[in-house]
Design a protein that fits this description.
Blueprint: H1 3-12, H2 17-41, H3 44-51, H4 55-62, H5 65-93, H6 99-116, H7 119-133, H8 138-144, H9 146-159, H10 165-184, H11 186-193, H12 199-219
C-alpha cells in the first residue's frame, strides 16, 4: 500500500476519544477566557493555560484566534438551534400557537441549559452578547444565529401580519437581550429582590415581559 493511501486513510479516520476530550477541553477554556477578557484581550497562550495544554495543541484543534472564537460560538449555537426548533415544531403540532408559545420555545432551552449546565453556559451567554454587539462578528451571527432567529421572527410575523418585519426584528433582538440579561444577571435580580428565583419562575417572568413589549410595539 502506497504512502499516499496510508496518509489518506489517516485523514479519514474518526478522531479518538482522547482527541475529542482534548478538543472539548480547549473549547471550554476558550469559552471562559473569551467571556472574561473579550476577543481582543484574550490570547492563545491564555487559552492554553486555562485548558492546561500546549499552545500548539490549541492551534491544532482551533486554528488561529479568530477561527477558535468562531468555533467556540458555533458549538453551542448548533445545539440550541436544534432544541429550539424541535420544541417549536412539537408545540405547533398540538394546535395554533400564541406569542407566549413562540417565546417559550426560544427562551426555554437556553434557560434550561443555563440552570443545569454549569458556568460554561453563563460564559456562553457573554459570548453571544459580544457577538451581538460587535459588527465585525456579523458573519458569525449570520451563519450560526440568523437561520433560527429568522424562523422565530417569521412565527411572530404570522401572529402580527400587519406589523413591519423591521419592527418584529427589533422586538426580537430586544427580547434576546432580555434573555441574556436574565442569565447573566440573575444574581443581581435576586439581590435587589431579596429572594431566590426558581428557573420556571425566571422563564415565566421573561416571557411575560417580552410578550407584553412585543405586543405593545407591534400593535401600536
Amino acid at each position: 500500500m502506497s504512502e499516499e493511501v496510508n496518509i489518506e486513510k489517516q485523514r479519514q479516520r474518526a478522531p479518538s476519544k482522547r482527541a475529542i476530550q482534548s478538543r472539548d477541553r480547549i473549547l471550554d477554556a476558550a469559552e471562559r477566557v473569551f467571556a472574561q477578557k473579550g476577543f481582543d484581550g484574550a490570547t492563545i497562550r491564555d487559552i492554553a493555560a486555562a485548558a492546561n495544554t500546549q499552545v500548539g495543541l490549541v492551534h491544532h484543534h482551533g486554528g488561529g484566534k479568530a477561527e477558535l472564537f468562531a468555533r467556540t460560538v458555533q458549538r453551542r449555537a448548533a445545539e440550541l438551534s436544534a432544541l429550539r426548533l424541535e420544541m417549536l415544531n412539537r408545540r405547533k403540532a398540538t394546535g395554533p400557537v400564541i406569542l407566549r408559545d413562540v417565546l417559550e420555545c426560544f427562551f426555554g432551552p437556553y434557560l434550561d441549559r443555563a440552570a443545569a449546565g454549569g458556568p460554561q453556559w453563563l460564559a456562553y451567554a457573554r459570548l453571544v452578547a459580544l457577538v451581538s454587539s460587535d459588527l465585525r462578528w456579523r458573519p458569525i451571527a449570520a451563519e450560526v444565529f440568523d437561520p433560527t432567529a429568522n424562523r422565530f421572527i417569521d412565527e411572530i410575523g404570522a401572529l402580527f401580519p400587519n406589523a413591519p418585519r423591521a419592527a418584529i426584528a427589533a422586538g426580537f433582538v430586544y427580547s434576546v437581550s432580555a434573555m441574556l440579561a436574565q442569565v447573566t444577571s440573575t444574581w443581581r435580580i435576586q439581590a435587589l429582590g431579596e429572594t431566590d428565583i426558581r428557573p420556571d419562575i425566571q422563564l415565566d417572568a421573561l416571557v411575560t415581559f417580552c410578550a407584553a413589549g412585543l405586543t405593545a410595539s407591534l400593535t401600536s
